[in-house]
Amino acid sequence: MADLPTIAIWKFSSCDGCQLTLLDCEDELLGILGRVQIAYFPEATRAEIEGPWDVSLVEGSVTTPEEAERIKEIREKSGLVVAIGACATAGGIQALRNWANVKEFASIVYAHPEYLETLETSTPHSDHIDIDLELQGCPISKAQLVDALLAVLSGRRPNVPTSAVCVECKRRQTPCVQVLGTPCLGPVTQAGCGAICPSFARGCYGCFGPKETPNTVSLAKRWSEMGASEDQLLRAFRTFNGYKPAFREESARHGG
Amino acid sequence: MADETRTIKTDYLARVEGEGGMLIRLKGNAIEEVKLNIFEPPRFFEAFLRGRYFTEAPDITARICGICPVAYQTAAINSMESICGVKVEDQIRQLRRLLYCGEWIESHALHIYMLHAPDFLGYPSAIEIAKDAPEVVETALRLKKIGNHIMTVVGGREIHPINVKVGGFYKAPSKAELEAMVPDLEWALETSLETVKWANTLDFPDFEMDYEFAALDAGGVYPIEGGERFVSNRGLDIPIDEFYEHVVEEHVKHANALQGHLKERGSFLVGPLARYALWYDLLSDEARGAAEGVGLGKVVKNPFKSIIVRSVELVEACVEALRIIREYEQPAEPAIEVKPKAGAACGASEAPRGTLCHRYEIDANGIILDATITPPTAQNQPQIEADLRGFVGQFMDLPNEELTLRCEQAIRNYDPCISCATHFLTLEIERG
Amino acid sequence: MAQTLTETAGSLEAMTPVPYAVAAKRQDTYDTWTLELEPQNGAPIVPGPGQFNMLYAFGVGEVPISNAGHFETEERLVHTIRAVGAVTKALCAAEVGTVIGVRGPFGNTWPIEDAKGKDVVIVAGGIGLPPLRPAIYHVLKYREDYGRFVLLYGARTPSDLLFLDEVKSWQRDYDVDLDLTVDAGDTDWKGKVGLVTKLIPPAQFDADDARGFIVGPEIMMKFVAQELMNRDLPAKSIYVSMERTMRCGVGLCGHCQIGPTLVCRDGAVYTWDEVENLIAVKEL
Amino acid sequence: MRAVLAPEALEAIVEVLRRRDWRVVAPTVRDKAIVYGEIASAAELPVGWKDVQAPGSYRLERRGDEARFGYAVGPQSWKRELLAPSVRLLQIERANGSFKVAKKAAETARTAFFGVRPCEVAAIKIQDRVLIGGPYADEDYLERRKNSFIIAVNCGEPAENCFCASMGTGPKAEDGYDLVLTEILDGSHRFLAEAGTDEGAELLAELPQQPAEEADTAAAEKVTDTARERMGITLDRSDVHELLLANLEHERYDDVAKRCLACTNCTLACPTCFCTTVDDANDLSGGAGERIREWDSCFTAQYSEMHGGGTRRSLQSRYRQWLIHKLATWNDQFDTQGCVGCGRCITWCPVGIDIREEVVAIRVTQEAKS
Ligand SMILES: Cc1cc2nc3c(=O)[nH]c(=O)nc-3n(C[C@H](O)[C@H](O)[C@H](O)COP(=O)(O)OP(=O)(O)OC[C@H]3O[C@@H](n4cnc5c(N)ncnc54)[C@H](O)[C@@H]3O)c2cc1C
Ligand code: SF4
Ligand code: SF4
Ligand code: SF4
Question: Residue A112, exposed/middle/buried by CB under 10 A (0-12, 13-18, 19+)?
């Protein structure tokens, strides 16, 4: 038991969905628990093992001064830091504040914004520390999480594709919805989800963030030809992964 | 001893969703302070929803909470459909209810066995339970999985489903796809019935509170995916559109969340205990039978027994899921087209943790002008603090460590969802 | 139709790794190890000089690694591996007794028969030496069948030079014109400093009747081939070993294409004349 | 052997095949497109549908008649049945210090491909050449291929993006099938059926039929002749090999890189593209590993990645790799052409890049130069 690698699961600003993904690995969870020691995972346990930890999974983005400090500490005390989810890898949906005035935002929501301690921006951990592995997705894929844990435990390279959602769409033989007339972000979005949206006759909305070398300009042009407005393009690129550079730059091309 | 100051404190509450802590200060036998600290950072959903397109609300608000995304999606949809004046056909509504049953099954199973049970069984977590009694955890995981599977088949995936939209679904599942889940659900139903019995064997402190129970009125069915009115056992009975005329919220210093009160009477309670107390008669025969079988009574005032009530609701969700699948006919069109209309309306649904209310105002182009979201935990927060006061008052003699544990348990009774609690708003209320 | 398919189909065995145990292991440099492998069952694979095997580290992955041993007599497979990524790290971490999977041998060979009676010029960069070692062994064993034997070896630093003792023993025992260099020396390094290309102008060989074998990074091979051509060695007489990502090793997965050729099937050994124009095209 | 079949005889084909334990896979309408799926009755064919295709666009429309095969090829190809998108190649188990390799149980379901277009027959022949025709054969492919039965259907209704006539692969299948049908719609709706193998002849013998008259043969000939004329020659392949290899650094690649998404759709929709990758995985106990082979594409960065970097990072280089492979280097590698002119890469490119236009653009400057 003592020899098992320790894993700590940290929450930053997030919806908890990515860490829930771990508990959602119903078939694998007990097996995983046999291979690792959970050192810190408040969503699941009161127990705690002090650092250093072999692996830290970090969920959520950095939105407060405390969080900006905490991630540095975690980095120092962790062998590997794996950022999980759109919040941790791109700032998440809450990064929409990065285009707005946070004070104004706070006053819309809270009667006493002065009680809040919050940063102007919501940023991914890679803006603050070195990250060993990023799993994109809002939320991350269960299969990728299990694979990444196994890979880390066995010194294997995690099977994280950097290619487009289209690869998975084609492998599952879904007729392309974009060609059938529904705008789809799949060609610029990183695979991993299994191409869920097109299989439900819906265009991908980019929740896995940009793929490598995403040609957003060309896709946006095609969307316009298909009738998308500039506003629609701006919003499409500025959602869950809107602060990731490739999407950020593309949304800027459509105003705002 | 008399004037000694004691502090009962948990910096970071475990096995709840989101980031919160608890602080209780006693001076002698007097309670000086009870605080449920919520330091979950604010994410400003209501603010950045402004300017987004109305059809985006379900996808965006799902991200408020990874544990009950369907609750958010459904409340948002209910609100938008109400603004735009559309009513979906019953088949679509049933499909939504089925999806929601999936979320209830997943969330309740998770809470009962993995978040709440460790308190009763004396373990720090289900991980340790798994070492001594793996079958308990295996049961939990299998139940959870069945709930998740419903969400995957109907919604596309379990966390942040993608198939839900204003007006219906992107694609309706075939009857065969749903029927394939029946054997699993039958197992889940059996297991939930056992769960009720098992939960009833746990040890409960002798503690009751006199709650004002509030929940949606779904017009003759147990409230899950929506309801036109918001009612309580003390006479509250309002159309959901008047929610914010009665529920006021306050921003207190120790919480990045706003606390909800009933304007008329102060704290109130939403969630399984409330739904159960108000709508006991609408439960299925199986669920009611299970409650009767363990002598639960029509109203449960001991919050620690919420684990039994949650188990009864687990039964209810399985029964409902099976019923819907049995009666399902794939709709000709998975959705109706919804054109934006300027206006404002509230929409609500019964999250596993209680009533969740959204209110939006949109313009004629479908752009969101204003958004207000009040999750159940925010409504319950004053009540949680009230429970703690009551509980500490009664069990003051326990040693610190045990008292802390018990207080934590008292909080976990509510299955609080702190990530949710940090988003809701006030603007209108202050004006109102 | 089905019957005709079976008759025409090629070998089916190539895709299944065969278990080999690590029989001996030696650390060559800070990041490079040599493994000797023995078959667990059945007859050993006997790869030719220049051929490679696909080595599989259990549950981690599979990569192409050149044959680095004697190829005629050796019972054991010899592979020298530099730990650069997940699979090579796992292979290098394999202890004696560990079983790893082997598929092969694949690819073509150095033209050692064709080189008989001619001068042989071998130029290696860093980890490029092991793939040439079977050819070197052959020339040494049949030393009298060959003319001059020039061996030029360069590495980034002295600590990257492989098999230094062995290399020096070749020079001592077999009449080899050996020249060594490093890109950057250290305080202990008394030898030459500079790129391996600098060793070519002074080398003694008969360009009309010589064969050049080169292995190293693509850019190094390019400049070395250029230098050899400057010495009038024709492009057709210069051989290089190419490297590309490989999944199958037998021409089925498509990954190792360079224009018209599949490295695993048509290479990895090519004449310079075959690849010069391909390498010249950026990102081909 | 040759005969005329009434449209109703198609049902008999399905029946006979199913009775003989063949899984019948055929075109059928699903998700607003004509895909290939298992059918239990000929009624599941896309009766009376046609497809309207354009670069990056595909729509189904009613034809106004009862044609069974009145459409061209759709988003899927028979590659899905033969070189399956995802296959577990090996299961590897640790066993006392060593390991045991269990091969994946070969696919045994005998599958009849009903409605294979001539270009697709050609594509299967090309994949046969690549995957089992060399010194090493792909075992999984071979097993599936051995267990397949091909009922081809000649083309009468090429879509906008079809150019099989240019590539010499259609609209009439010459060989490579067990049975071939030509749908004749000139007044009396009928099919001319011709057996290509003994198995095909056996099947044909069991079907309700009329003898084929000369008029039927002529009518069938006219169907494919008309189709050929309608398509014309849109890709000149006579010199395309030299053209592309002489222009590896053509500026057109910069232009296409502005449009290309590197999304892989063209390659994965293509019936001949065969690139695959393998992923080795291990299980939680550490006791078992498996090797999964999946469709891959030269358009991904990981495809050409080596330690220390990728070989083809730019979109220019990835598009060029694909184009020259399809139309030139494929011939060098496998002594067969790589493109059959089915047009899928054009229709199913989300931004509608047209392989024919790219060749023309390169050719134009070449001609200007010379
Ligand atoms: C014909 C041939 C012979 C080789 N001989 C030797 C040798 O004798 N000794 C030696 O140390 N190395 C040799 N290599 C290089 C060796 O194959 C790579 O270093 C190895 O593949 C890296 O894999 P990895 O998992 O350790 O690294 P990673 O960087 O983790 O690999 C990532 C992936 O990319 C692929 N890949 C990465 N680099 C290469 C590469 N250079 N070539 C092919 N695929 C690559 C691998 O398949 C792997 O799956 C040879 C390569 C080829 C093609
Ligand atoms: S539907 Fe979207 S993800 Fe799928 S192939 Fe088309 S563009 Fe790509
Ligand atoms: S298709 Fe796109 S939006 Fe849908 S789940 Fe996948 S990555 Fe997310
Ligand atoms: S390259 Fe295009 S036209 Fe040619 S076979 Fe492939 S998909 Fe069809």
Answer: middle
> In this model, does residue D165 exceed pLDDT 70?
yes
- Our answer on whether the CB atom of D19 is closer than 6 Å to any ligand 1 atom is no
The answer to whether residues B141 and B247 belong to one domain is: yes
CA separation (Å) from B222 to B148, B218, C105, D83, D254? 21, 7, 69, 51, 62
User: Taking CB atoms and an 8 Å limit, are D142 and C5 in contact across chains?
Assistant: yes
Integer Cα distance of B73 and B58 in angstroms: 4
Q: Are residues B336 and B300 in the same domain?
A: yes
The three-class DSSP label of residue C219 is helix
CA distance readout (Å), B415 to B258, B303, B412, C97: 18, 11, 5, 53
Chains C and B contact (Cβ–Cβ under 8 Å for 3 or more pairs) = no
Q: At what angle do helices A230-237 and A245-252 cross, to 10 degrees?
A: 160
Q: Is C63 in the pocket of ligand 1 (CB under 6 A)?
A: yes
Q: Is the peptide bond before A65 cis (omega within 30 degrees of 0)?
A: no
What per-residue confidence (pLDDT) applies to B427?
22
B360 and B287 inside one domain: yes
Which residues contact residue B428 at a Cβ distance below 8 angstroms, ignoring those fewer than 6 apart? B244, B359, B370, B372
Subunits in contact with chain C (3 or more CB pairs closer than 8 Å): A, D
Nearest to D31 among A34, A167, A174 (CB): A174
Nearest-angstrom CA–CA distance, A144 and A125: 19
Interface mutation target, options A80, A146, A147, A154, chain C, most CBs of C under 10 Å? A154
* pLDDT < 70: residue spans in chain B: 1-3, 8-18, 39, 253-258, 418-432
Q: For D232-239, what is the mean pLDDT? A: 92
- pLDDT score, position A12: 93
End residue of a domain, out of C75, C106, C137: C106
Domain region containing B53:
43-382
- Ligand 2 centroid–CA A195 distance in Å is 8
Q: Using the beta-carbon criterion (under 8 Å), do B426 and A110 form an inter-chain contact?
A: yes
Contacts of A207 in chain B (CB under 8 A): 160
Query: Do B149 and B10 fall within a single domain?
Result: no
The mean pLDDT of chain A is 92
Number of structural domains in chain C: 2
Residues 6+ apart with CB under 8 A from B193: B286, B290, B315
| Nearest chain C alpha carbon to D98 | C99
ipTM over the 0.90 cut-off: yes
Q: What is the pLDDT of residue B18?
A: 64
pTM of the model: 0.94
Find the angle CA(D181)-CA(D185)-CA(D189) to the nearest 5 degrees.
80
Range of C215's domain?
119-279
| Tokens 């025969």 sit on residue | B285
C215-269, pLDDT tens digit by residue? 999 999 999 999 999 999 999 999 999 999 999 999 999 999 999 999 999 989 9
Burial letters D168-201, b for 16+ CB under 10 A, else e: ebbbbbeebbbbbbbbbbeeeebbbbbbbbebbe
In this structure, the residue with its CA closest to atom 7 of ligand 1 is: C65
Measured CA to CA, the distance from residue A7 to residue A55 in angstroms comes to: 5
Best CA proximity match to A81, nearest among A121, A118, A32, A125? A125
Stretch D99-105: mean pLDDT:
77
Whether B77 and B202 map to the same domain: the answer is yes
Number of domains, chain B: 2
User: CA–CA separation, D194 vs C91, rounded Å?
Assistant: 57
Q: Find out whether the beta carbon of D271 lies less than 6 Å from any atom of ligand 4.
A: yes
Q: State the distance between the two ends of chain A, measured CA to CA, in whole angstroms.
A: 54
Domains and CATH numbers, chain A: 6-154 (3.40.50.700), 165-252 (no CATH)
Helix locations, chain C, DSSP H: 2-8, 86-93, 129-141, 164-174, 218-230, 263-266, 272-280
The answer, yes or no, to whether residue D368 has pLDDT greater than 80, is no
